[in-house]
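Researcher: Following up on the earlier apo prediction. This time include the ligand. It's adenosine-5'-triphosphate, with the SMILES given after the sequence.
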Amino acid sequence: MDLERHQNLHTIIMLREIIRKWWRAELHFADRNGLVMDWQRGGDIPPTPNECCRLSLSSREGLRRCNQSVRQLHEQFRANRRLRRATVQPCHLQFSLVGAPLYIQDEYEGFLFVEGFLREPPSGRELEVLKARLRELGPGVSDAERAVARLPVLGDEGLEKLADLLEYGASEITAFEAEKARREERGPPGLAQGNGEHYRFEDIIGRSGPMQEIFKLLQKVSNSEATVLINGESGTGKELVARAIHSNGPRQHGPFVVQNCSAFNDNLLESALFGHMRGSFTGAMKDKKGLFEVADTGTFFLDEVGDMSPALQVKLLRVLQEGTFLPVGGTEPREVDVRVIAATHKDLGEMVKRGEFREDLYYRINVIRVHLPPLRDRRDDLPLLVDHFLRKHHREGQRARGLSSEAMALLASYAWPGNVRELENEMERLLVLGGDLDLLPAELISSRIRDAVTPGNLSMLTARAAGKLHEAVETLERDMIHQGLLRTGNNKSRLARELGISRSNLILKIAKYGLDKGLPPDAEADA
Ligand SMILES: Nc1ncnc2c1ncn2[C@@H]1O[C@H](COP(=O)(O)OP(=O)(O)OP(=O)(O)O)[C@@H](O)[C@H]1O
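Model: Understood. Below is the ligand-bound prediction.
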């Protein structure tokens, strides 16, 4: 297990800062043998904010006793695998030690702990005992006096918070390791292949022509530092794509920060993005870091960038060009190193023409453009996405399930205005309503969808009044066959009868249009 790497996870770095700031205490890691990582380097022990702990750790005997206290906590965790919550233990100086066990793939791998705080303000007598114990370890009278002057005291509420934070830190590491294992199982990051074609990039699923193009582009883009503009309707996967670019690129170990620019009014957005100085407006009681600083060394995903006011557009342009910005009320520019990925459902080019979006900013963010087509324009992805969401949301212990052919046909005929998000929600809902059914029937599909797809209203077969006749005929033929295959559950004999052509002619046309992927097996052919 890579304790060193865990210490550098973004969440753990933040956790360490919070613990130092709120409780003047230090976060440590012990391994599965109860050895404390920071204490194994001989005299080279990192400074801890608690002066008593620092004095103790810098003496040989003190370090031995500290290790002993930690081992006692370790023994408790090791002896009881069911103990998964944080636990408190007194140390040799009568301070408290709180630790949360770390389980990776259900194996005990050590624990995160914080030491060196008192549960109540000490009495005069307790302070004398503490000073005497410290002096036993070597420090002189004045050092011991100074050390006990500012002792962190944590009441029940503080302790509960600290315990929660440690458990949270442990669960983040568990999740990180689970994701790592999942990726290793899946092979190298990026593209996954099946039947000679790419069908996923990280968590992005798609087999249609437009998605194949996007996957190719993402592979190139991920390795660069270029600014990316993602265009697409709501729910088409813009954030998913931004995350995939981040986690495949050179900044994958840095933070990934998201802000939706339409979520706040101008003032709040400015303060959220760039931070503010104390007193810069009513209610600004303290200096506050902005998200650009939080995203330093990582990636900042700015969603709905088209909703930014002209004043903020100027500030964004400056960060992109110079890497600097001024917090609200600040006079000193701050420097950051952030890769920006912007997204919008609007046509920024048109907005530039109308004078609503700065042209210079448009060219600065539009270095690489990824256009995510709406789901209705890539219906070939539907069976694969349905399958993906059924797996993703099926609860543990449940059988893997599928859709009845009627249910699939209904979904294939719907226009999906909410795109993949709407489809995902519908699949989650179906799984809940379907109970233990093996095949989820069309009757369980939301009435919103069923009502929109009335019989005869085949939304896929959009009428075409312009263009070449043979192209229109081919599109119609392809759509009718595709929809028929979904509706009949790939029963080619039945579909051939319905279409009034021979089975072999149908098979030729299916091959011509590449419609044979992602369908259930043809029961007749198998027989
Ligand atoms: N191609 C895809 N494969 C798998 N899941 C997808 C795909 N596209 C979108 N999703 C899922 O759909 C949901 C919506 O995606 P996401 O939030 O990335 O969309 P968005 O375009 O950023 O939406 P909005 O503009 O409303 O914020 C997420 O749960 C995401 O995982």
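Model: Residues 457-465 have pLDDT under 50 and may be disordered.
Researcher: Noted. I'll compare it with the apo version next.
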